[in-house]
Write a structure and sequence with these properties.
Length: about 450
């Protein structure tokens, strides 16, 4: 059901050579880019008409407009299962608690007497958020995108989610209910690359956004790449990943359950166990069979995900090697199920989010830990972070120097300007001091 990679007995290679030994899904955004380019430009030129046409072509629905009516949002919230409503409210509460603490404050540094640099943080004006549709419905992704944007102070928030044939061309009602709970009333029935293009260019119904965030399929990722530079993006999200670093103290039933929990997302989802305990690896394999048989989405998602090249049990000589492997892998979600798990977690450099010990499964982070589940995939955790309040803020430096403070450093500025053969830079200071710079 799941393959093995045995790295025992040899010194591990460094950097990219080690990464190349590890399992990873094929996710060719560059190839998809050529397919989404005409779609994006069609939306640019035809706006809402193009979106309506793509809704019929890709989603099998006939729409008169893309924006979801306010009454549909209200109705979705009214009909929401009370238990689901309570769970979403708790998810929102916990996410607000964590994300509110992330907000940075303005700070002024006095560099010299009379010379200060202030760093202020300004939210982007308008964001377009994407909530996926397709195999599953993700109201949790609505929470994870909207809450940090709101806590950052973004004034204009719009959300897009694919239209669903079974719901009359509207996004899934649980998505709409989550929007209503969060106070987001600008919602669009649009999916895929065309939704990203709608936010990037704007249409008759939708004003252009400064930034687009949220997970999606390869077409969403390709559209984000296409528009990078025109708009801000969070990340080009690939297939979801879980890596578990475990030793002989781990419960194989827990490890198997957690691998399966990510495999049920998608046939390209990655489930990786890194362990120095062959007995644990054997026990996890034995646990997978009955647990997979007892759940849903077995043939279309879980089995192909576990059997795919992106999933494996990786055997290592010890914890030090295991840490080296998980840092090279840079998992979206990394569970530490070892002795003294907190100390081990503190040594990890590369992960989107780290889950410590047997009572902090990835599923908790997906919904109700308070953390954000929009995280870097495909090894991007080696250089990138998950979605947060900071994702929606711009840092601006404000420079305020008096005449005396400028005079003190003017000769250094002129010297550096001339060293770079930019004499007009120096002349800008000379003009302020009658063409004779103090100190020269």
């Amino acid at each position: 059901m799941i393959s093995r990679i045995d790295l025992r007995g040899n010194a591990l290679p460094e950097g990219g050579a080690l990464r190349d030994l590890l399992p990873r899904a094929e996710f060719d955004v560059e190839a998809a880019l050529e397919k989404v380019r005409p779609i994006c430009e069609d939306v640019h030129h035809r706006g809402t008409a193009a979106l309506i046409e793509y809704a019929e072509k890709f989603d099998g629905v006939t729409l008169e407009r893309i924006r979801v009516p306010a009454e549909a949002l209200a109705e979705a919230l009214e009909k929401l299962d009370p238990q689901v409503k309570a769970a979403l409210e708790e998810s929102i509460r916990r996410a607000r608690t964590v994300h509110r603490a992330q907000r940075r404050t303005e700070h002024t540094t006095q560099v010299v007497p009379g010379g200060t640099v202030t760093e202020k943080w300004v939210p982007v004006e308008r964001v377009g958020l994407y909530a996926p549709g397709g195999r599953s419905v993700y109201p949790s992704s609505v929470v994870m995108n909207v809450v940090p944007a709101q806590e950052a102070g973004v004034e204009s928030i719009a959300l897009a989610s694919p239209p669903q044939k079974e719901f009359g061309g509207l996004p899934h009602p649980t998505i709409l209910a989550a929007c209503a709970l969060l106070g987001v009333d600008e919602v669009y029935a649009a999916g895929g690359a065309q939704a990203v293009a709608m936010f990037a260019y704007g249409t008759e119904e939708c004003a252009p956004a400064n930034m687009v965030t949220g997970p999606g399929n390869i077409w969403v990722a390709a559209a984000k790449r296409y528009f990078t530079g025109r708009i801000g993006i969070d990340t080009e999200a690939g297939p979801t990943e879980i890596a578990v670093l475990a030793d002989e103290t781990a419960d194989p039933a827990h490890v198997a359950a957690d691998l399966i929990s990510q495999a049920e997302h998608d046939p390209m989802a990655a489930a990786v166990l890194v362990t120095d305990c062959a007995a644990l690896a054997d026990a996890v394999e034995r646990e997978l069979e009955p647990q997979v048989a007892a759940t849903k989405h077995v043939e279309d998602r879980i089995k192909p995900a576990l059997a795919g090249r992106q999933s494996a049990i990786v055997l290592v000589d010890g914890l030090e090697q295991g840490l080296k492997v998980v840092d090279a892998y840079g998992a979206e979600h990394l569970e530490i199920q070892t002795a003294d798990a907190a100390a081990v977690a503190g040594r990890v450099r590369n992960a989107g989010a780290i889950f410590v010990g047997p009572w902090s499964p990835v599923s908790l982070g997906d919904y109700c830990a308070g953390s954000n589940h929009v995280l870097p995939t495909g090894g991007c955790a080696c250089h990138s972070s998950g979605l947060s309040v900071q994702s929606f803020l711009k840092g601006i430096h404000i420079v305020d120097y008096s005449r005396d403070a400028l005079a003190e450093v003017a000769h250094h500025v002129v010297t550096l300007a001339e060293a770079e053969d930019l004499p007009a830079h120096g002349a800008a200071l000379k003009a302020r001091f009658g063409w004779k710079v103090p100190g020269q």
